[in-house]
Design goal:
heterodimer, A: alpha/beta, 13 helices, globular, B: about 700 residues, alpha/beta, 30 helices, 22 strands, about 50% helix
């Protein structure tokens, strides 16, 4: 940050897996496989020796019970020496944005020169929990001293205990689901169904264009499925090239069937994928011979009462980040906004407009957003950092902003600068 | 003194075997003396109540008997005496009044295992380097220091024959499962546990060993009737496999059977007799020569004053086809390097990655690696349709289509992507390396590395420097080939190099014979009986007719009429009978299994299988046409020594090891005789048999290839 100790942090490169709707092309891969794959591909693309990396930070929102620290499994790839420390973090949908931010801090503070930051989510690989009663009985049975005692304990299991519990995307503090929150925001901010559908269509059209002209494709490392008979996955599979406003309008609202406006089409889908970004101190980048895509100018996180408008915290995070950057909204040449729901994007834009900021859509989500591309919670932040930094180079834009809303009423914002 | 001992706690004497100045411990005459003296001292010393025996070497226990001593023997009687002396020594160990326990870490082979078997208790470390076995038959002899007696008594005839007859070496885990060792422990515990066992035995405790294998074990091993069945089955299998060419397994079988029938003393006597007979056979001599040659090749970089090789951490492979993926999988499995594969499009890359991964999966399936090692190895494999990541590769091997322009294009692309000191190796089978290197900006970095198919199984690598190749590039290619588990020979940059140069006339001759009316199976059968693992026609199917056609074409162009392709073969390629990979060749293939001869083939090549020349003539034609070309190539300096040539032929296409290789075989026949026979054949069948100058010259001078 401008008044830091002077070490600027460079974004060297980023890459990601194709983002695929949960239960489709990536369903047989575990989250840890996706994370390791993407980290390794990033090394390939940058020709970086694994030994040059000082730390690995990965974000994941729904970790597997078997691999609680996915980042360490990444840093234990054979391409790395075994001595690279690693941790995983959870800032909900901003997790890998936070991973990049933490990497930034470590580099600025002199704790590291080269950090691999990323995120992963496999919603095809979520932990399915046993019911509380079943869990209790199993634990008790495992402590039983004799076989008869064990059988007696186990005999208490009833069929209803066997129904598994899958984690819901609901706020623990309010019980409100993400979709319900978006629905509430649409109503309170008077976001029409048509406006939401138009934003969704825009997301698909722009993403398809980005895929076809190679800008999005450039970020994607082709995924080779375990079964060689399956086709190689080279594209995000949520992007619809054939859709239209009419088709999108046909969908029924999901969260409020009578008066609602949030549909499957104007929301981001459940997605599998991983993304990673390579960050270096400016001197390290120079010494290792890399030309940075961009530098991190500032970042900020804000939070609001989840019972208010759950996904509206970006309207507080962005001004904070801009202030820390010493910049004005109008200085920004490119803006990437995470699209959890079209209703949320439009609410965020409305909130910024209310500050008197001019909303120029030609600078926003120029290759579409999470609605079309998909949203593997933990991976989205790193995806957006990559997309933004690459596009800043292509357009030679000096300042770029990214904004991510997150569960728990949190918002994350980061400002990148080109030179 | 190779053996030292000291008295440790509670009356346990710790003996350490460490041959000073030697890389491994071997049992030589001096060591035997030493051992005798040591055990005598231990017997005298009253404070010693038990003995714990270890090796002082970090990675070997005892590698076996000293083969150098063994090759000096000239008569069967001498050899028998050597065996009997070994038996006597180990008999003393077995009857030693104080209990002896051994702690085994590292290779415990041949005489080393026989020694361990004579001890009262065996503890092994559960380390990958700890391997136990009796490889004697691979040298044409048998375990002659009581191994044929003690192993079957310990683990049953069935399991013992399995090891002895095939000369197997087993990892410690398997040896423990079989009952060869009593305990398996972490290397850090080996010393303590072994000493504790010795001490327990000093207090009168004896290990209880139960017969393995349950009811089936008792039915087969536990009674004379079952054993008879075991021996009969084993004998049948040995005869099938050795085809009467290798006497050692049969003799070992006899030694085991004799001992189990007549008792230990008689068994030992028979074992020593048979050892004596085997030791001076020609087969054993040849096998030992091959052993020495391969051992020497392991230290030979093929150039004078070889510079230290560049250590390869990362390997780039261009071309994800059958060869490319074979090299990738083998490089990961054997050398543990990071591999990046590149091909023109992603589906091909996917196929190559899957094929390479199959090699790793196969290791897991065969329990050669754990699932954790497997996961680590799998993470070393990756690929793409671009050259990303090639900048970090110390070595890039191309295995693209066999066409000089295509290879040159790949070379230019790799040079652009790779670091300035990266080595570029071509896995070409025929194209001269200097031709490929014409396109290079750094021709001194270009070399040939010719692997054989399937890469995972074929043990040979031809390394082909061009005249401009830098010495460090040669040593790097040889060293990396070795890390991949291959025996590398450095050969001259000439069409077909060594293997295809001498194999092509042989395969071609098989074609001539077919046209003359010899049946396909007949040709194959005769050569298998002669000692090849497969006959030439089957080999053609394995290699692929399209590949074969290409090779012959190149050789014909380079060397002229004697390499003229058999016209009948062209029809095979045209009709898509490419061999195993196409599901049909001379034979039919279904689901990867070789079926019978496809009768349609005869019509296709315009032949009628109605006899042709007699068997001896067939063999002679096939053999002499190869020996002639081999001699000519030696004259041209294609291989650096007859040793390299013979090892190449044995490991490259299975030239019968008991014949020692084509040049060794030529020496046995004698150049004058070969020249005379070739002249006769040339008169009858054409100029392709005309004896080469090299042979004529040697014939006149009475010179042999080997001194």
């Amino acid at each position: 940050m401008p008044d830091g100790n002077g070490r600027r942090v460079a974004v060297i490169a980023g890459c990601r897996t194709p983002f695929c709707r949960a239960g489709t092309a990536l369903k047989d891969a575990r989250a840890v496989d996706l994370a390791r794959f993407v980290a390794r591909e990033l090394l390939e693309r940058t020709n970086l020796e694994g030994a040059a990396v000082n730390a690995v930070i990965f974000g994941q929102v729904v970790p597997s019970a078997l691999v609680p620290n996915v980042a360490r499994e990444v840093s234990l790839l054979p391409q790395f020496p075994k001595e690279i420390p690693a941790y995983s973090l959870n800032r909900a949908c901003a997790s890998s944005g936070q991973a990049v931010a933490n990497a930034h801090d470590e580099i600025v503070l002199g704790g590291a020169d080269v950090v691999l930051a990323g995120g992963v989510e496999s919603l095809s690989d979520i932990p399915i929990l046993a019911s509380r009663r079943l869990a209790d009985i199993l634990v008790e049975a495992s402590k039983a001293k004799s076989l008869p005692a064990r059988l007696k304990t186990l005999s208490r299991i009833r069929p209803r205990d066997l129904v598994p519990v899958s984690p819901a995307i609901a706020e623990p503090s309010t019980g409100e689901s993400m979709g319900q929150s978006a629905e509430k925001m649409a109503k309170e901010n008077h976001i029409t169904r048509e406006a939401q559908d138009r934003w969704a269509l825009r997301s698909h059209v722009f993403a398809a264009r980005g895929g076809d002209d190679g800008r999005l494709a450039a970020e994607i490392a082709p995924w080779f499925p375990a079964r060689p008979s399956d086709p190689v996955v080279t594209q995000d599979n949520g992007i619809r090239r054939d859709t239209s406003l009419e088709q999108i309008a046909k969908l029924k609202p999901v969260f409020d069937r009578r008066y609602g406006s949030v549909t499957a089409a104007n929301s981001s889908p459940l997605t599998d994928g991983a993304a990673a970004v390579l960050l270096m101190s400016e001197p390290a980048a120079r010494a290792l011979g890399y030309s940075p895509l961009a530098f991190i100018r500032s970042y900020a996180v804000a939070a609001v009462d989840p019972g208010w408008q759950l996904l509206q915290a970006p309207i507080f995070a962005v001004p904070k980040a801009l202030e820390r950057a010493g910049l004005e909204w109008r200085d920004l040449g490119l803006i990437e906004i995470h699209e959890a729901f079209a209703a949320q994007v439009l609410s965020n834009l409305q909130g910024w407009a209310a500050k008197g900021w001019e909303i120029d859509e030609s600078k926003i989500n120029v290759m579409g957003g999470s609605i079309a591309i998909g949203h593997p919670f933990g991976a989205t932040g790193a995806r957006i950092v990559t997309t933004l930094a690459n596009e800043m180079v292509r357009r030679d834009v000096q300042f770029g902003l990214l904004s991510i809303c997150a569960q728990g009423g949190m918002g994350f914002a980061m400002v990148l600068e080109r030179r | 003194m190779a053996l030292t001992w000291e008295l440790a706690d509670q009356g346990v004497a710790v003996v350490t075997f460490d041959s000073k100045g030697e890389p491994v411990n071997k049992i030589s005459a001096a060591v035997k003396q030493d051992m005798l003296a040591t055990f005598e001292a231990l017997e005298r010393e009253t404070a010693v109540r038990a003995v714990a025996f270890f090796s002082g070497k970090p990675d070997t226990f005892i590698a076996g008997a000293d083969i150098e001593e063994f090759v000096k023997l000239t008569t069967a009687a001498e050899a028998e005496r050597l065996s009997a002396e070994g038996q006597e020594l180990l008999d003393r160990v077995a009857r030693f009044p104080k209990p002896v326990a051994v702690g085994i870490h590292g290779a415990c082979l041949g005489g080393g295992l026989e020694f361990a078997l004579a001890c009262g208790y065996r503890v092994a470390s559960d380390h990958p380097k700890t391997q136990l076995g009796l490889p004697e038959v691979q040298l044409g002899i048998l375990p002659g220091a009581g191994g044929c007696q003690r192993l079957p008594r310990l683990i049953g005839a069935r399991a013992a024959l399995d090891i002895i007859l095939a000369g197997k070496v087993e990892p410690a885990q398997k040896a423990f499962r079989l009952g060869i060792v009593d305990e398996l422990v972490h290397p850090a515990l080996l010393r303590d546990i072994t000493m504790a066992a010795a001490q327990r035995m000093a207090g009168g405790w004896r290990p209880k060993r139960k017969r393995r294998g349950g009811v089936a074990g008792w039915l087969l091993d536990g009674n004379p009737l079952g054993r008879r069945l075991v021996f009969r089955t084993a004998k049948k299998r040995v005869l099938e496999q050795s085809r009467g060419n290798y006497p050692a397994p049969l003799a070992a079988l006899e030694a085991v059977e004799h001992g189990l029938r007549r008792g230990m003393t008689e068994g030992l006597k028979r074992e020593a007799q048979l050892f004596g007979q085997l030791a001076v056979t020609d087969v054993s001599r040849k096998l030992v020569q091959i052993f020495f040659a391969t051992t020497a090749l392991k230290k030979d970089f093929g150039i004078p004053n070889p510079p230290a090789p560049i250590v390869v951490h990362r390997l780039g492979i261009v071309g994800a086809g059958f060869m490319g993926s074979g090299i990738a999988g083998t490089a990961i499995a054997q050398a543990g390097v990071d591999v990046r594969m590149k091909d023109a499009d992603l589906p091909r890359v996917a196929k190559g990655l899957a094929a390479a991964r199959d090699i790793l999966d196969d290791r897991l399936k065969r329990r050669r690696i754990t699932k954790y090692e497997h996961a680590r190895l799998v993470a070393l494999l990756s690929g793409s349709d671009g050259y990303g990541g090639f900048g970090r590769a110390e070595l890039v091997i191309e295995a693209v289509f066999e066409d000089v322009q295509v290879k040159q294009q790949v070379l230019r692309e790799v040079e652009a992507a790779n670091a300035d000191d990266g080595v570029f190796a071509s896995n070409t089978s025929t194209i001269p390396i200097h031709r490929i290197a014409e396109a290079a900006a750094r021709p001194e970095q270009v070399i040939g590395m010719h692997f054989f198919s399937p890469v995972a199984r074929m043990p040979l690598l031809e390394v082909i420097p061009s005249e401009r190749t830098a010495p460090v590039v040669v040593s790097t290619a040889v060293a990396f080939g070795r890390r991949m588990g291959k025996t590398a020979i450095v050969v001259r940059d000439s069409p077909g190099f060594w293997i295809n140069r001498i194999l092509t006339p042989y395969m071609n001759e098989a074609g001539h014979l077919l046209v003359e009316g010899v049946a396909i199976e007949e040709i194959d059968r005769l050569m298998v009986e002669w000692g090849f693992p497969v006959g030439p026609i089957t080999l053609l199917d394995e290699v692929g007719m399209d590949v074969g056609e290409k090779v012959v074409g190149v050789m014909h162009e380079a060397f002229g009429e004697r390499f003229a392709p058999v016209p009948a073969f062209a029809g095979m390629v045209k009709s898509g009978r490419l061999g195993r990979k196409a599901g049909k060749g001379f034979y039919t293939y279904s689901a990867g299994k070789k079926g019978s001869v496809d009768p349609g083939v005869y019509e296709l090549i315009g032949a009628h299988p109605n006899g042709g020349p007699r068997a001896a003539e067939i063999i002679q034609r096939l053999m002499l046409v190869m020996l002639n070309e081999a001699a000519r190539a030696v004259g041209e300096g294609i291989v650096r020594s007859p040793r390299d040539g013979d090892i190449g032929a044995i490991f490259g296409f299975g030239f019968p090891p008991f014949r020692g290789g084509p040049l060794r075989h030529a020496d046995d026949l004698g150049a004058p005789r070969i020249v005379a026979e070739l002249e006769r054949l040339a008169e009858r069948y054409g100029a392709r048999f005309a004896p080469c100058d090299e042979l004529r010259d040697r014939g006149r001078r009475g010179a042999k290839f080997y001194p």
